[in-house]
Inverse folding.
């Protein structure tokens, strides 16, 4: 198989954690199930993709609660499904972004901190195209159009059932950078205000004069996949995205986001500021 996806690594990590929690060795599990040790080891290292049946069998052996068992069985089931965006080449949707979109499509909530641009799920098409042109000077018009179309398709997740909950904190300078020019940026800010009125979307602005804060220079997104699975953190970088998957690191990001919420303007004050910035674009 190729490089395992984040979802597949997440299931494999759960299998290792469950066995450790149960205090069992690979030999003991092998004897109980009459599976080879090499098979169990490959499943735990994500070298073999486990199916939902295998996850359920192992969860039963380890005494895992049904809710947690079923959550990871569903991840395993989806891990074998071919998502719509995986057909696109790497210049349109890079590998790490494919993993992110896959998890985004299954998440129940996103906690997103952005420092330099408007969150992707809240971007207009013109803003997304302008961002793509500035990001990579070698992109063709066709790739830019396709990237923007992919982004627009992703945004359907905010309107379909089950509804995705989005809580975003945006650093103030991101609202002032004229991506695509004054008209494009003004339209983008008004779109941001409209989206912030939806009950499943919370927008807060972190003022520029807030000073030092726990995520300086590091935009990130916490993907919550349900109450019975550990969240995953995605951090965007210039060349490629990075996933943070270990529980202590995820917890650190969660604490940072909680702090950002407290430092940022409340949603109403944030909307007032966005409106004033948009008026300055007239």
């Amino acid at each position: 198989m190729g490089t395992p996806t984040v979802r597949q690594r997440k299931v494999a990590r759960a299998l290792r954690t469950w066995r450790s929690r149960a205090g069992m060795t690979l030999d003991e599990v092998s004897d109980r199930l009459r599976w080879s040790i090499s098979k169990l080891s490959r499943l735990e290292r994500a070298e073999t993709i486990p199916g939902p049946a295998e996850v359920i069998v192992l969860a039963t052996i380890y005494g895992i609660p049904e809710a947690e068992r079923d959550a990871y069985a569903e991840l395993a089931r989806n891990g074998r499904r071919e998502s719509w965006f995986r057909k696109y080449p790497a210049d349109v949707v890079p590998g790490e972004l494919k993993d992110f979109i896959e998890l985004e499509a299954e998440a129940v909530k996103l906690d997103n901190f952005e420092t330099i641009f408007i969150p992707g799920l809240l971007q207009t098409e013109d803003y997304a195209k302008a961002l793509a042109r500035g990001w990579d000077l070698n992109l063709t018009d066709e790739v830019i159009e396709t990237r923007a179309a992919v982004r627009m398709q992703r945004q359907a997740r905010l309107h379909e059932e089950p509804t995705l909950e989005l809580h975003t904190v945006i650093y103030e300078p991101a609202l002032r950078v004229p991506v695509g020019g004054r008209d494009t940026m003004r339209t983008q800010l008004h779109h941001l205000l409209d989206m912030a009125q939806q009950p499943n979307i919370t927008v807060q602005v972190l003022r520029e004069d807030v000073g030092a804060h726990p995520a300086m220079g590091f935009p990130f997104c916490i993907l919550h996949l349900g109450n019975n699975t550990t969240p995953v953190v995605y951090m965007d970088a210039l060349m490629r995205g990075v996933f943070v998957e270990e529980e202590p690191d995820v917890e650190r990001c969660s604490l940072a986001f909680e702090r950002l919420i407290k430092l940022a303007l409340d949603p109403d004050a944030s909307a007032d500021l966005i409106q004033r910035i948009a008026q300055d674009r007239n």
